Amino acid sequence: MSILIKNAYIATMDKDGTSEIPNGFLLIEDNLISQIGDNSNGAADKIAADKGIGKVIDAEGAILMPGLSNTHTHLGMTLLRGYADDMALKDWLEKQIWPAEANLTAEDVYWGSLLGCLEMIRSGTTAFCDMYFFMDETAKAVEKAGIRGCLSYGMIEFGDAEKGTKELAVNEKLVSDWQGKANGRITTMFGPHAPNTCSQAFIARAKEAAEKAGVGVHIHVLETEAELNYMKENFDMCSVHHLDAVDFWNTSKVPVLAAHCVWMSDGDIKLFAEKGVTVSHNPISNMKLASGIAPIQKMLDAGVIVALGTDGCASNNNLSLFEEMKTAALLQKVGTMDPTALPAKAVVEMATVSGAQVIDKQTGVLKTGGKADMILVDVNKANAAPIFDVYSHLVYAAAGSDVKTMIVDGKILMEDYNVLVMDEEEVMKKAKECAYSLAERAKQKE
Ligand SMILES: O=c1[nH]cnc2c1ncn2[C@@H]1O[C@H](CO)[C@@H](O)[C@H]1O
Ligand SMILES: [Zn+2]
Which residues are listed for substrate binding in this entry (predicted)? Predict the structure, then answer.
């Protein structure tokens, strides 16, 4: 189906082309953007008539921009939203989250993932990178929801080689079953959990498997000072250098996605810049668990690719990248005591272009030939009057709930606030049932 969007304020996020078109149009044919341009001379209506376009969206009063990419999630954790708060990472995982997760079923993860997809559609996220369990279920949810998902299985090996072999087999099956499915909307990665929950040898095996399969790797790294201290005590070096010793950060064959990266030294940052690692910055989770402030401005200055992520819903507690963008900017300013740190446009780039680097390089900007993944942000709202600068509006004043329309891979998933791909009431009902029953089962086992 062809779709023509007209009268939009377009923020293309394309560094090589026109970055803003105040009265623009965009034409989608199949799943690709076939034309984008100025509409002040009424070009759109002529195209619609000439081509006999059936679907025309009048985007007067809306910003048209690339969809946002959430580069670090544990989607099934929507069920644990608010399950355990106000704790440090180690206690939070060991005393609350892992015992609860031990009771998870495939059905739980399906409804939790679908709820996550719904929340992402409603807040402008068209693509995400996930690391969790029962990933077939998340894949099915992504297939149904119509968004883009880059899925990894969270492998935790705890230095047990036999367990490691089993974990790798699970992730390998995910890759062989789902890579490229749903017209390429589903891609996969290997997900060794973290340098303090997996051995160096195991993480090296995971990287090898990823390179063999031609897919990326997704890992937590230097999230807490406790991890840094643990690595120093046991290996006399930080996580980054410990894994560099097995060439883990080499991105010449496959992308490497590192979540959190709070406790990075200047040397670590230089290494990530040279290697081309993508960092997923999760400011809200890092603040909530009091993990610290990642040196993002330093990373950007050094040339590191930095994207944004929410982390799981149990440490955030939502999936809104609009909140994440604002928090990223504010936290960096107060952390460096420099109000010029992480300006608005740089933050929007993190959430769009930079995130797309590891998910699908044909997305993340609006340009001819690119895949048609985009959103309309409603600016016919009190919090959007006036707008002097589109990036300032998106980062400091807008909210996820201002997103009114979403198109992914040329298909409309939400139009004028109506979600077209699932029964919202049913998804919320089932997810709540799963969540309360999971909590009940976890409590009984205590
Ligand atoms: O911020 C975090 N740091 C480390 N682990 C996390 C965080 N959030 C969630 N998980 C845990 O990572 C595993 C994913 O497969 C899950 O056990 C999830 O609870
Ligand atoms: Zn995480």
Answer: 101, 193, 223, 311
- For 134, the enclosing helix (H) or strand (E) is none
Residue nearest to atom 9 of ligand 1 (CA): 312
- Give how far Cα 158 sits from Cα of 88, 164, 195, 207, 231, Å: 20, 8, 10, 17, 14
Pocket of ligand 1, candidates 93, 158, 198: which has the most ligand atoms within 8 Å of its Cβ, to mutate? 93
Is 101 annotated as a binding-site member?
yes
Atom number in ligand 1 closest to CA 291: 1
Containing 275, the helix (H) or strand (E) segment is helix 266-275
Question: What average pLDDT values come out for the chain (446 residues) when binned by 10 residues?
Answer: 97 93 97 97 95 96 98 98 95 96 98 98 98 98 98 97 98 98 98 98 98 98 98 98 98 98 98 98 98 98 98 97 98 98 98 97 98 98 98 98 98 98 98 98 88
Of 70, 87, 220, 222, the one to substitute when testing ligand 1's pocket (max ligand atoms within 8 A of C-beta) is: 220
CA 156 / ligand 1 centre spacing (Å): 10
Residue 446 has a CB neighbour count (10 Å cut-off) of 5
Q: How far is the CA of 132 from the centre of ligand 1 (A)?
A: 8
